[in-house]
């Protein structure tokens, strides 16, 4: 029988693109993967199988809002721990801090290795949603739990640098697996259209400047803003889209459909408020997806995203202001400049930022992990 991995996910498996890609990469290498996920909205069967992955769902009370999340998390922890006791596996792969402590408990009981997959700088990510005391507690809990980790996987080098000092030994392996997509040799065909189309997909929140872009777009001639995703600003963006023809709200769009729709985009907005540490060191999926598709990106100065985009020549970095945004849009109107940035992004994706490279890193790290 091949190796068996239990993946822990404190959210619904919709699926999250990173979780899916990593799980499928391991399955392709002959590993049996079971994903134990939290069915927060009661949308999924208790057991299912998709693409060769076994998915077990944990149900608590329905979760909507931070209060319900906090009240139901202990139930998720205990139920997931109970389910795991009846399962056989050789290692546990914990996605983000909200499953790391669960992973520590399970692996200490079972005597198997623990893999920690840090998608974000977790404490910094939640800092705007919880009192500072809780953010500090999360940071210290993560540092404490890292001493039990046998393989560290991070979404970029900055997150890795932040977490490495807390591992129990320099001999513990660490690998950076970025949220890249497969590189496609054939250059995507961008269809002609009038004006400039700016696109944003992700969490609809103020730190991503979504509403700011929408309002600024209204003052720019022949400029349309397309928005996909969900979050606190959803209602506001929906309202604007109903009264303004040049703001198009797409709601939730499946990942593959999203990539197909991006072929017609002129500029992908990857702006994040750099005053938040997680934003400063974060690398949004859309940065790498835009590279493969040959679409220029708009990033925030002072972030890792800007560092990558400027180094590769595939985007424009600004400190948010309506004036700087308008200037970026005018720059993108130049088809030669747009094509040059797109070609630079494609080259970077082919040479550095593609899933083939990242998949090999992950698989190699797992092969070196002692069962």
Q: How many strands, what sense, and barrel or not for the largest sheet?
A: 8 strands, mixed
Low-pLDDT stretches are none
- The helicity comes to 40-55%
- Backbone CA Rg: 21 Å
Supply the CATH superfamily name of the largest domain. Answer: Glycogen Phosphorylase B
Task: Report the portion of residues in β strands.
Answer: 15-25%
- The SS-based structural class is alpha/beta
Can you identify the CATH class of the largest domain?
A: Alpha Beta
How far apart are the termini?
13 Å
Secondary-structure element order, N to C: EHEEEHEHEHHEHEEHEHEHEHHEHEHHH
Strand order of the largest sheet: 3-4-2-1-5-6-7-8
* CATH topology annotation of the largest domain: Rossmann fold
Number of domains: 2
- Return the average pLDDT rounded to an integer: 94
Overall 3D form = globular
Helix count from the secondary structure assignment:
15
Going by CATH, the architecture of the largest domain would be: 3-Layer(aba) Sandwich
Count the beta strands: 14
Task: Give your account of this protein's structure.
The structure is a single chain. By secondary structure, this protein is an alpha/beta fold. It has 2 domains: 4-180 and 355-367, Rossmann fold; 196-351, Rossmann fold (3-Layer(aba) Sandwich), CATH 3.40.50.2000. Helix content is 43%, strand content 20%. The protein has an 8-stranded mixed sheet, sandwiched between helices. Helix 1 packs across helix 15 (355-367), helix 3 (97-110) runs parallel beside helix 5 and helix 11 (285-293) packs across helix 14. 42% of the residues are buried.
